[in-house]
């Protein structure tokens, strides 16, 4: 079997009402799905999604005519292209989906077969009033999920703490709470400075009082020394690396003991090929591996296969912020949106590849030319 083509397409879903994420100062009036497909001479096709793969066009010849099962070779080429251009790791996801279809096996089993399910936490995305946040938390618990991530990014972190205190008082110990501080990176137009180590340490001590499970991205992504000191000075788990660009940077975060929870995303960095190695390294080092998944359902499912197949992660991120961010919005273009069961787990099937089916009619109607 040979690769005969790699095709990219963009699909756009209008958002009315718009979605206003905590990490972005601009409301989002549409959501784009950047889809990549790998075609073969025997009619099988694998697909992936994530970043737009800027700069990939013109490199298709590096894959056409190649054996699709040579995954290590393909991952090295993708890493080279991603160094010179955009993040092209959705192609790696598509190749793993294709490999599963060729072998008639689900990706989670090809990655090691640790488990066929992973427990999820509800990851909110917007800044809510105290009453709205309590309402969301109670609905999350009623849906069977045992944990929820709360976003910080109000004008001052003391405002965030005050709202979190009201939430903890209202729900007691019925939910594990995580906090995303959103200090690791910024949107291109956001020039705000990240917290200093002293600020992050003060916030961490407040979060300890509220029994927060982990503190995510409390410092700039390159402040390795600061992460080491923060981790040493506090009891709360320190999480990060969701947008870290290079695999060697994540390895350094693990080796230098900068984090307790490693959170890269297969659609953003390393693909399934690279992060399967990173996950094993993290676990062998006594750290938790819990992928970031804030994107389309295809990337979410790829990370679910990774977490279940390799890492046996304690939690997997599930973007969940109704009514502005629902499974139907997040997973548009799939015939069935991804939802947890009544116990708060995403269960993976034995269907080949990622086990997903595209809604070709909807994709045709939402395609951006």
Short description:
It comes from Limibacillus halophilus. The protein has 369 residues and is α/β, with parallel strands linked by helices.
The total domain count is 2
Question: What fraction strand?
Answer: 15-25%
Order of helices and strands: EEEHHHEHEHEHEHEHEHEHEHEHE
Q: Main sheet?
A: 9 strands, mixed
- Please report the first level of CATH classification, the CATH class of the largest domain: Alpha Beta
N/C terminus separation: 31 Å
Give me the CATH architecture of the largest domain, please: Alpha-Beta Barrel
Q: Provide the CATH topology of the largest domain.
A: TIM Barrel
Q: What's the total number of strands? A: 13
Poorly predicted sequence stretches spanning 5 or more consecutive residues: none
Nearest-integer average pLDDT: 97
Coarse morphology: globular
Kindly state the percentage of residues in helix: 25-40%
Number of helices: 12
What structural category characterises the helix and strand content? alpha/beta
Give a structural overview:
The protein has 369 residues and is α/β, with parallel strands linked by helices. The chain folds into two domains: 111 residues, Enolase-like, domain 1; 238 residues, Enolase-like C-terminal domain (TIM Barrel), CATH 3.20.20. It has twelve helices and 13 strands. Strands 4, 5, 6, 7, 8, 9, 10, 11 and 12 form a nine-stranded mixed beta sheet that branches. The protein has a four-stranded antiparallel beta sheet with strand order 3-2-1-13. α4 crosses α5, α6 runs parallel beside α7 and α9 packs parallel to α10. The protein is globular, with a radius of gyration of 20 Å. The mean pLDDT is 97. This is L-alanine-DL-glutamate epimerase-like enolase superfamily enzyme.
């Amino acid at each position: 079997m040979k690769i005969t083509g790699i095709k990219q397409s963009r699909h756009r879903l209008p958002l009315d009402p718009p979605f206003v994420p905590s990490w972005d100062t601009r409301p989002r009036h549409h959501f784009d799905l950047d889809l990549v497909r790998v075609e073969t001479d025997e009619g099988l096709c694998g697909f992936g999604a994530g970043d737009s793969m800027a700069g990939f066009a013109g490199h298709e010849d590096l894959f056409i005519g190649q054996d699709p099962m040579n995954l290590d070779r393909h991952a090295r080429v993708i890493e080279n292209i991603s160094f010179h251009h955009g993040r092209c790791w959705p192609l790696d996801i598509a190749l793993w989906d294709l490999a599963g279809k060729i072998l008639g096996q689900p990706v989670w089993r090809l990655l090691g077969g640790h488990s066929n399910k992973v427990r999820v936490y509800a990851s909110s995305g917007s800044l809510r009033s105290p009453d709205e946040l309590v309402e969301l938390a109670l609905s999350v618990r009623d849906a069977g999920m045992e944990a929820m991530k709360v976003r910080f990014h109000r004008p001052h972190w003391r405002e965030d703490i005050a709202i979190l205190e009201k939430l903890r008082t209202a729900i007691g110990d019925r939910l594990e709470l995580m906090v995303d501080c959103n200090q690791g990176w910024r949107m291109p137009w956001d020039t705000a400075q990240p917290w200093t180590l002293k600020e992050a340490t003060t916030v961490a001590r407040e979060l300890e009082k509220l029994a927060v499970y982990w503190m995510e991205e409390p410092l700039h992504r390159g402040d390795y020394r600061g992460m080491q000191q923060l981790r040493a000075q506090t009891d709360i788990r320190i999480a990060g690396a969701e947008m870290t660009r290079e695999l060697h940077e994540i390895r350094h975060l693990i080796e230098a003991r900068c984090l307790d929870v490693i959170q890269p995303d297969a659609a953003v960095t390393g693909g399934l090929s690279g992060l399967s190695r990173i996950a094993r390294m993290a676990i062998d080092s006594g750290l938790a591996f819990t992928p970031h998944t804030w994107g389309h359902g295809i990337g979410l499912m790829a990370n679910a296969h990774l977490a279940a197949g390799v890492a046996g992660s304690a939690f997997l991120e599930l973007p969940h912020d109704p009514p502005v961010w629902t499974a139907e919005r997040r997973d548009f273009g799939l015939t069935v949106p991804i939802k947890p069961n009544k116990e708060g787990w995403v269960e993976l099937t034995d269907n080949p590849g990622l086990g997903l089916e595209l809604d070709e009619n909807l994709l045709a109607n939402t395609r951006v030319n």
